Structures are given as C-alpha cells and as structure tokens.
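Is this the right way to post structure tokens for a design question? Let me know if I should format differently. Anyway, here goes:
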C-alpha cells in the first residue's frame, strides 16, 4: 500500500520536473546582477549631435535643455555557452533622457542627464545558470558631468575639451536593465570643429571623443560583465541652410579592457547612427536619427530609433 500511494506522487514530481524545468530553474538559479543595458549615451544638452558633442562651451550663466528619446529593438539577446540556443530577455526598450546644462564661466559646463525607462518588454529567462528577471519600466541612474574647454573655438578649425561624467546609483525599486546601483566614472577628451567650406552648400564639420568608463566595483564573471571600457566615437557632417541644418553619420563604440580582453565580440559594441538636426534662430531645435549595431555585442540592438528636442537661449544663436 505504501508503494502504490507513493509511486503516483513520485511520478507527478518527475513529470513536473521535466515539463516545468524552466520554472524550477528560474526559482533556484542565482539572479543576474543589475546592469545599465543601454549602450547609447546621449551628448550633453546643447549638442547638435546625438552621441557626440559640438563643444559650444561659451557664455556665462547660460543654460541649455533637451529631451532625447530612443527606442531600441531586441537590445538584450543572450546565447547559451555552447551556442545551441538564444534567449531574448529584452524585446524593446524605450528610454527618455531629460537633460540640462549650465555654464559657470566662459569655458566651463556642468550638465545633468536623467534617463527614464518608459517601456521595457521581455520575459524572465535562465541562461547559463543565471536567472534574468522580468524587464520593467523605471528610473535609470542619473548622470552628472563637467567639461572644461582647453583650447580653440567651436567655430574654428578645432576646439578641445576635457571632462568627467559620473553615473550615480539611486537604489530605487528592482530595476535590472536600466540601472546598476553602482558608481560609474567616465573621464574623456573631446574635439570638434569645422574642416572646410563646401561651396554654396555650407561647411564640413566633425566631432570626436575618446574616454574610459570605469565600473566601481567591477564584475567580470556574469553574462553582462562590468569592468573598464575604452570608448571611442566620431562624427562627420554637413552644415546646410545658413548653418541651421546638420546632416551626417556618427560612429560610437567601446571595448572592455579587462575580462575577456580588448575587442572580444561579446564586450565590444559598435553602432553607426545617421542623423538630421535642425536649429532655428529662436533657439529651438529638433533631431531625428536611426542607428544600427555593427557588432552584435551583448546589449547592442540591431536597430535603434532616436528623436530629440532642444532649446538654446536665443542670445547665444549666431
């Protein structure tokens, strides 16, 4: 009697264990750590590029404001260790950045950027023994930054500036793909300027940036490692229509210097962005862009769509 009564229970456990293995694994597997998934980092308020900076670092007690919205398609797809299967963790991520900047002197800028994850769709999965929780909307880590113009003018051949950005942990809620709850520091050096006049069309302009992103503390053991990244970016464009329209591509990427080493595919995202930006004489501006992932590193979407609205005080438009 004992065997006959125990056998059905054992059979039920075996069936549930096979058929619901994914659920059981999710409850027992260790949870993946929080990570700021978004590989796109907008330029500071007042820039006419999406990812780069025009370095208009002039004026006293001047301020700039902007709103940047980006929609990433399939930004987080993880592959099992043996490469046999893929799991889509985040299908879509819609983020809005509220940005502002003030100028304390003729060459110093202090800026703030607050990311709001408006929409994040996906499903909880287990990949390589780690449980990735259900995506959800929330508030990201605010970024503060300071830049100092070192030489030149944005209207000349070259202007150079150095700065530091810091993403500050705010520890709100259970955000997993828009916040890390740890400090990130980004020292950088940037240049911008005008290369040449292009006849009646306008002028050829450029921007560039090199920097580092330091995660404090580091975490090199997860599927979404956090270490020390080398960041590179560049842009080339045409200023048209009395310098009010800027058209051109931007290229930005990074590679982790530790972990699997520089230029490992999984930790070396690279994207190209084609954008159009307009500014009128009243200080109002707008931009639209589309980006594509050239290297499908972890966290890099195949497609990204962007729009921007910004305001620069009319007294500074020349």
């Amino acid at each position: 009697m004992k065997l006959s009564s125990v056998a059905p229970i054992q059979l039920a456990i075996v069936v549930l264990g096979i058929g619901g293995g994914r659920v059981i694994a999710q409850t027992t597997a260790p949870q993946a750590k929080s990570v700021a998934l978004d590989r796109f980092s907008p330029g500071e308020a007042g820039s006419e590029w999406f990812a780069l900076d025009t370095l208009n670092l002039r004026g006293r007690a001047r301020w700039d404001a902007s709103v940047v919205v980006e929609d990433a398609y399939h930004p987080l797809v993880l592959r099992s260790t043996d490469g046999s299967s893929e799991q889509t963790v985040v299908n879509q991520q819609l983020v809005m950045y509220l940005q502002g900047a003030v100028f304390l002197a003729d060459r110093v800028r202090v800026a703030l950027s607050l990311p709001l994850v408006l929409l994040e769709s996906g499903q909880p999965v287990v990949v390589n023994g780690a449980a990735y929780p259900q995506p959800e909307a929330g508030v990201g880590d605010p970024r503060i930054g300071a830049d100092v113009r070192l030489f030149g003018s944005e209207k000349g051949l070259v202007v150079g500036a150095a700065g530091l950005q810091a993403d500050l942990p705010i520890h709100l809620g259970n955000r997993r793909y828009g916040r890390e709850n740890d400090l990130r520091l980004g020292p950088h050096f940037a240049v911008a300027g005008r290369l040449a006049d292009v006849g009646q069309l306008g002028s050829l302009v450029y921007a560039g940036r090199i920097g580092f992103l330091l995660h404090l503390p580091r975490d090199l053991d997860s599927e979404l490692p956090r270490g020390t990244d080398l960041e590179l970016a560049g842009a080339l464009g045409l200023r048209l229509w009395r310098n009010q329209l800027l058209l051109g591509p931007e290229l930005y990427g990074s590679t982790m210097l530790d972990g699997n080493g520089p230029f490992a595919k999984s930790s070396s995202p690279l994207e190209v962005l084609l954008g159009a930006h307009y500014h009128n004489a009243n200080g109002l501006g707008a931009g639209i862009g589309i980006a594509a992932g050239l290297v499908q590193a972890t966290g890099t979407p195949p497609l990204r769509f962007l729009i921007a609205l910004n305001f620069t005080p009319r007294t500074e438009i020349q």
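Format looks fine. Someone answered above. Worth noting: The domain at 31-316 is CATH 2.40.160.40 (Porin). DSSP finds two helices and 15 strands in the chain.
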